[in-house]
Specification:
The complex is a heterodimer of chains A (about 240) and B (about 350). Chain A has 8 helices and 9 strands. Chain A is an alpha/beta fold. Chain A has one domain: Spore Coat Polysaccharide Biosynthesis Protein SpsA, Chain A. In chain A, the strands form 2 sheets. In chain A, strands 5-4-1-6-8-7-9 form a 7-stranded mixed sheet, sandwiched between helices. Chain A has a two-stranded antiparallel ribbon with strand order 2-3. Chain B folds into 2 domains: about 200 residues, Medium-chain alcohol dehydrogenases, catalytic domain (Quinone Oxidoreductase, Chain A, domain 1, Alpha-Beta Complex); about 130 residues, NAD(P)-binding Rossmann-like Domain (Rossmann fold, 3-Layer(aba) Sandwich), CATH 3.40.50.720. Chain B contains 11 helices and 19 strands. In chain B, the strands form 4 sheets. In chain B, strands 3, 5, 6, 10, 11, 18 and 19 form a 7-stranded mixed sheet that branches. Chain B has a 6-stranded parallel sheet with strand order 14-13-12-15-16-17, with helices on both faces. In chain B, strands 2-1-4 form a 3-stranded antiparallel sheet, covered by helices on one side. In chain B, a hairpin with a 2-residue loop joins strand 1 and strand 2. The radius of gyration of chain B is 20 Å and the shape is globular. The chains are: A alpha/beta (about 240), B alpha/beta (about 350). The interface between A and B is medium-sized, with 25 and 22 residues.
């Protein structure tokens, strides 16, 4: 089976706050999160979808899904964790509690705030996870990456041709992912915020799937303006 | 859902745009193979009037495609089924005028987005299943085959019953496919092909005779004819057809010309000829195309000869490569393998 786990935000987001999480903002007539879920909903290779969001947003998210999506694939909405890895662990636990899994079970994890992903990116993530065990979506870095250990002085400037920017999805064989997470110490768990980084630390291969420049993460108001522009071919009014 | 559409914004420039398709009522297709048409090439190169370019761009090109059903909320198709989308979309019913001639119909890659998209969102009534065993690279240009099938179906309706000899003028893709369909539909008729390039005429080995237009025997006569030349040369082809056609013959005009074409109307009157135009096609023509392909493996074998370069497309730069490859092609089709 192939599960899609949509990560829809961290803690502290309450309805009524002025800063509504970006995944719930309207983009072309639908909330961002619905656009993202739909891309997995229509992909024939994805069997079920799990949306992980803050507890106060679960009922609202369920209502949005019910109102926007046609009947078909099962979509579960559950609580995310305190951290990204905590959310990932919640997704794994939910799958293990509700389904029989085996070595071929695949989990595609994706940010709810990246609604511009494509069919190819999802398919190639699944293919790569089947072949290599883990896949990350990346694009070549266009800016020079500068490293600083103290935030003041540059400690190194890696060669740009070897640098990539990480996007999502990140996709894994579920059993392999579980075993790698289990091998982490509590200290390692606190430091490692990226699932693919866990694999590289443990010397497990992660295949790079070519992303898209437009597969942007909507984080800041500026990103929302870019998203409007991509969708409408013109800037938004706000 | 946000869908990526790769639009020609001005000649030679393609950019991604995003749309929000209706996933509650539309079938979503994932393009597999597409084929470049001369009409697409004219937009790409800017060989249309300024007015036409201004009115129709930006739009996604390509209207020849075979695709896989990815999602169907209407329940008409199963995921994984291989279909050909019909680029013509009628907006009203008409018991008399065919869907491809109604002025209110929309046509993909002519004022409306073509098939260069992440997903093609389309009404289920605009889809035709591809029979098993048909090469997908041939199915990619099923639309062009259906245009020939449509012309032959109209010919059947308009022409008299004596079909001892039929002539096809034009040794390009349209001439080749039209000749092939004529041979499949009228196996007992003599089929003659007239062209200007000996090398291309040699591909028509299924015909009963091929002739260079400069060396047509004076006494060679056909009962009916198809003009598949187009452009400035149309007038010479039509003139030669009128010379070599028997009285009361029908002439199917299929070649597109940007300029008006002079016709020897004196001889049209004298011979009582029937000239009819034929353009594009509709769902019924696509369905008949699939039936003809299923019943004629020999035709499929010949159509394989039309598959020219296959260009894998993973980027907009690759789309440009496909159009560049097609420009230099004198015969055959440039096929796009869609991996974007």
């Amino acid at each position: 089976m192939v599960f899609a786990a949509i990560f829809a935000g961290g803690v502290g987001s309450r309805m009524g706050n002025i800063n509504t999480p970006k995944q719930y903002l309207d983009l072309g007539g639908k909330p961002v999160i619905i656009h993202t879920v739909e891309k997995f909903f229509v992909n024939d290779r994805v069997d079920e979808i799990i949306v992980l969001c803050p507890k106060p947003w679960i009922a609202h998210t369920k209502s949005l899904i019910e109102a926007n999506l046609p009947a078909g694939k099962k979509i579960s909405v559950i609580e995310g964790g305190k951290t990204r890895n905590g959310t990932l662990e919640n997704a794994i636990e939910f799958i293990n509690s509700n389904y029989e899994t085996d070595e071929d079970t695949i989990i595609v994890t994706h940010d709810a705030v990246r609604p511009f992903l494509t069919h190819r990116i999802i398919d190639e993530n699944i293919d790569a996870a089947i072949e290599y065990g883990a896949a990350d979506t990346v694009i070549p870095a266009t800016d020079t990456i500068v490293e600083s250990k103290d935030g003041k002085i540059i400690s190194s400037i890696p060669e740009r041709k070897n640098m990539y920017q990480g996007q999502t999805p990140q996709t894994f064989r579920l059993k392999l992912l579980e075993s790698v997470i289990e091998s982490l110490t509590d200290d390692e768990k606190d430091i490692l915020t990226d699932a693919c980084k866990i694999f590289t630390i443990k010397d497990k291969p992660v295949y790079m799937v070519e992303g898209e420049v437009f597969n942007i993460k909507i984080t800041y108001p500026y990103d929302m303006k870019v998203a409007y522009t991509l969708l409408k071919g013109k800037d938004s009014d706000d | 859902m946000i869908n990526q559409v790769y639009r020609l914004t001005s000649p030679g420039i393609i950019d991604v745009a995003c749309t929000v398709p209706d996933i509650k009522n539309s079938v979503l297709l994932r393009p597999l193979y597409m084929s470049v048409c001369k009409a697409d090439q004219r937009y790409y190169l800017g060989n249309r009037s300024k007015e036409a370019l201004k009115a129709k761009l930006p739009m996604a090109l390509i209207h020849e495609c075979v695709a896989k059903v990815e999602f169907d909320p209407t329940g008409n198709f199963k995921p994984g089924e291989i279909v050909v989308p019909v680029p013509n979309t009628p907006t009203e019913d008409d018991d008399v005028i065919a869907e491809n001639y109604r002025l209110t119909s929309h046509f993909c890659s002519s004022g409306y987005d073509g098939f260069l998209r992440d997903y093609i969102d389309i009404d289920p009534g605009r889809l035709v299943r591809v029979p098993e065993g048909v090469d997908l690279k041939i199915a990619a240009f099923a639309e062009l085959i259906s245009v020939a099938v449509h012309a032959v179906s109209r010919f059947d309706k308009f022409s008299h019953s004596r079909k001892n000899a039929i002539g096809v003028w034009g040794d390009g893709n349209v001439g080749f496919i039209t000749a092939l369909i004529l041979k499949a539909v009228y196996p007992d008729s003599k089929l003659y092909v007239f062209g200007t390039v000996y090398e291309k005429l040699a591909y028509f080995s299924f015909a009963d005779g091929t002739f260079h237009v400069d060396n047509v025997p004076a006494d060679l006569m056909v009962d009916h004819a198809f003009e598949c030349v187009g452009g400035e040369a149309s007038r010479y082809a039509v003139a030669q057809i009128i010379d070599h056609i028997n009285p009361e013959g029908s002439i199917g005009l299929m070649g597109v010309s940007e300029s008006p074409v002079g016709i020897n109307t004196r001889m049209v009157l004298e011979k009582g000829l029937n000239l009819f135009g034929s353009s594009r096609s509709g769902v019924a023509d696509f369905e008949r195309t699939m039936q003809i392909l299923s019943a004629n493996p020999n035709a499929i074998a010949y159509l394989e000869n039309l598959v020219g370069e296959v260009v894998s497309v993973r980027s907009i730069a690759d789309i440009h490569k496909a159009f560049a490859s097609d420009i230099s092609r004198s015969f055959g089709k440039t096929i796009i393998k869609w991996e974007k």
